[in-house]
């Protein structure tokens, strides 16, 4: 794999694409209705953050937000945390999903390892939501009640969420591939009144029975009054062992004559509860507001993903990752949401590219690691599949290296818009993302999002351009958490985001903002590799190691010692059929010396079978670092949050020997 220089211009949008872009339609609207004229994206962004209230008020007007009562002001204050958006307004998220639907148009396309591809019309989605809402009413679900979902990324999950949100109840989901205790740790904190569950699922060609797990979860949730079972693995699944359970077929019996009731709630009332990854201790329950999510997702998906009614929007995700919530948000734009449940590599790595062809997908959302995996697997999707309709590839989860950008142009499609985006569960959106009117530079995220006052701060709290610093938000943002569940004085929320720079959101990522306004993410700032006072992000090391063809994946940590120095062991997973020989070690070191610096050459390179990752695919850099520093694994890692907990055993054993060398 050849190295691509960061910042290399790879693509520029043609005039036709610019003219069709929703961003330009918004600029035209501002000119006509607000007498505001912006020559380029940079000036539009500057106005959106300098005149914060005015910008977000135009979002309200542009998207015609429906409110039962008028709002008193846009922003109660600029103080963080604690500010309130559009106080006085009363809205319903689900109403905005259904308000412009065209009955016979396709709302959702879904498929899985268990189900063939199927299309669902807006009329069916609406009628199924009405039917389920009636059942939820019968169970006494109302505003403020919590509804937990132990469901995969399937059609029924969308219906369950919309029915919940329509009543002003609070949604919270966990993927069935989560460990039993991990689900209990999440749901027990929020005391749900009702739970949805599947009987099982299929992944990588293997079946996983989840009814015994659902039983265990029920036992730990004394507040549960009812459970609705979705027969997914087995169409005739028996849910009788669960208490107060009915099947989906009973609960969602369609009544075509019914209408959906919308419970209006204050703009700042909860919509859903998401969770931090929970790699250390219990996951933090992050609460987002109905209005904040509605407004931010409309903005991000309309202007930065450029979604229109004719689009077919896909993101490979589970219900345990915020990208599922973002995917659901695409329904707000009237576009078609595409769901897939199953392994992205079964029966082979072509499965999602074939799915893109079969669904006439226009936007392909995935992780940077998936693109890197396809690149290392030498796939050529543009040659093996008909991707005529595909116009955008978006990625998140970790930084997409410049070579990943280049691979998309070389092997997928020459004229395609690549958007690497970065944000997080904390805000359920991206801060830095794409724009269809801007050029694409290798390794760079195209722009800071409209209305997001994003800066890169040095250690003195000064904003910097062209230098790597802490990613911060210096002004309020609508989809910031309204609070953490069971955090009455707000101390956990404060300590999570506001204890580094008082009154300023510190996200925990390393960011460089370039002179042209693009951004480069260098990984988590607490996973920085600091050698001799020179700090670089772990993503830079991974990029260098990725150049070594024999290596499949890698993980590096910087472990301080008692002398004030540190060790930087590098762990590598080798491609099938290859071994970590001395020649390969030397090649890895050479790449790191040349592409990072001689100081960042690992103190040791070790071959392992697997990299420990969360269920969302993120590498466990910090927990591994703590294990190597001598901390007990059960205190620094929530095993239920891992996709491959057996991979940690290597590091636990390695730590025993490693401690003697520090």
UniProtKB/TrEMBL annotation:
One Pfam family in the UniProt entry = AMP-binding
> Gene3D superfamilies given for it?
3.30.300.30, N-terminal domain of ligase-like (3.40.50.12780)
Gene Ontology molecular function: any one? acetoacetate-CoA ligase activity
Q: What class of enzyme is it?
A: ligase
Return the PROSITE patterns for the record. Answer: AMP_BINDING (PS00455)
Q: What is its EC number?
A: 6.2.1.16
Q: Which residues form the Acetyl-coenzyme A synthetase N-terminal domain?
A: 41-96
Q: Which UniProt keywords apply?
A: ATP-binding, Ligase, Nucleotide-binding
Keyword Nucleotide-binding among record annotations: yes
- What are the AMP-binding enzyme C-terminal domain coordinates in residue numbering? 545-618
Any idea where the AMP-dependent synthetase/ligase domain is?
100-476
**What is stated as this protein's family in its record?**
Belongs to the ATP-dependent AMP-binding enzyme family.
This chain belongs to which protein, by name? Acetoacetate--CoA ligase
């Amino acid at each position: 794999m050849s190295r691509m220089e960061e910042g290399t211009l790879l693509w520029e949008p043609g005039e036709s694409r610019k003219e069709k872009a929703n961003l330009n339609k918004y600029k035209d609207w501002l000119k006509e209705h607000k007498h505001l004229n912006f020559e380029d994206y940079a000036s539009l962004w500057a106005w959106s953050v300098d005149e914060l209230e005015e910008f977000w008020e135009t979002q309200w007007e542009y998207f015609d937000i429906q409110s039962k009562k008028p709002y008193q002001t846009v922003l109660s204050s600029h103080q963080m945390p604690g500010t309130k958006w559009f106080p006085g307004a009363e809205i319903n998220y689900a109403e905005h999903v259904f308000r412009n639907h065209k009955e016979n148009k396709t709302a959702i396309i879904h498929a899985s390892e268990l189900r063939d591809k199927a299309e669902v019309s807006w009329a069916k989605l609406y009628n199924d939501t009405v039917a389920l809402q009636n059942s939820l009413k019968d169970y006494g679900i109302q505003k403020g009640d919590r509804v937990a979902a132990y469901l995969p990324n399937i059609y029924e999950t969308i219906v369950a969420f919309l029915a919940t949100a329509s009543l002003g109840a609070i949604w919270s989901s966990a993927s069935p591939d989560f460990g039993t205790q991990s689900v209990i740790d999440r749901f027990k904190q929020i005391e749900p009144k009702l739970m949805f569950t599947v009987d099982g699922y299929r992944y990588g060609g293997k079946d996983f029975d989840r009814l015994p797990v659902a039983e265990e979860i029920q036992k730990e949730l004394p507040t549960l009054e009812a459970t609705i079972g979705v027969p997914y693995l087995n169409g005739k699944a028996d849910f009788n062992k669960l208490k107060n359970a009915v099947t989906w077929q009973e609960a969602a019996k369609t009544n075509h004559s019914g209408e959906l009731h919308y419970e209006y709630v204050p703009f700042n009332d909860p919509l859903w509860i998401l969770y931090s990854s929970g790699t250390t201790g219990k996951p933090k329950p992050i609460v987002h507001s109905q209005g904040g999510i509605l407004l931010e997702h409309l903005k991000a998906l309309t202007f930065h993903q450029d979604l229109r009614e004719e689009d077919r929007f896909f993101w490979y995700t589970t219900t345990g990752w915020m990208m599922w919530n973002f995917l659901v948000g695409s329904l707000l734009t009237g576009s078609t949401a595409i769901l897939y449940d199953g392994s992205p590599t079964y029966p082979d790595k072509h499965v999602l590219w074939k799915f893109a062809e079969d669904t006439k997908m226009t936007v392909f959302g995935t992780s940077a690691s998936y693109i890197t995996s396809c690149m290392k697997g030498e796939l050529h999707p543009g040659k093996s599949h008909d991707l005529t309709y595909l116009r955008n590839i978006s990625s998140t989860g970790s930084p997409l290296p410049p070579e990943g950008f280049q691979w998309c142009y070389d092997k997928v499609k020459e004229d395609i818009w690549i958007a690497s985006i970065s944000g997080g569960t904390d805000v359920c959106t991206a801060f830095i993302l794409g724009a269809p009117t801007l050029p694409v530079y290798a390794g760079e995220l195209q722009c800071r999002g409209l209305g997001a006052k994003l800066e890169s701060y040095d250690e003195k709290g000064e904003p910097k351009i062209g230098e790597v610093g802490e990613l911060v938000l210096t002004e309020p943002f609508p989809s910031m958490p309204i609070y953490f569940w069971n955090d009455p004085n707000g101390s956990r929320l404060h300590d999570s985001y506001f204890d580094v720079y008082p009154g300023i959101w510190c996200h925990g990522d390393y960011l460089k903002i370039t002179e042209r306004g693009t951004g480069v993410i260098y990984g988590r700032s607490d996973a920085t590799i600091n050698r001799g006072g020179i700090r670089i992000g772990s993503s830079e090391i991974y990029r260098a190691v990725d150049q070594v063809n024999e290596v499949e994946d890698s993980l590096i940590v910087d472990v301080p010692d008692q002398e004030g120095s540190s060790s930087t062991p590098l762990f590598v997973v080798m491609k099938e059929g290859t071994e970590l020989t001395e020649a390969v070690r030397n090649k890895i070191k050479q790449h790191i010396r040349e592409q990072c610096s001689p100081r960042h050459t690992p103190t040791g390179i070790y071959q392992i079978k697997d990299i420990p990752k969360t269920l969302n695919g993120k590498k466990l850099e910090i927990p591994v670092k703590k294990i190597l520093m001598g901390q007990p694994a059960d205190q620094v890692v929530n095993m239920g949050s891992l996709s491959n907990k057996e991979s940690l055993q290597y590091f636990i054993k390695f730590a025993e020997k490693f401690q003697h060398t520090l």
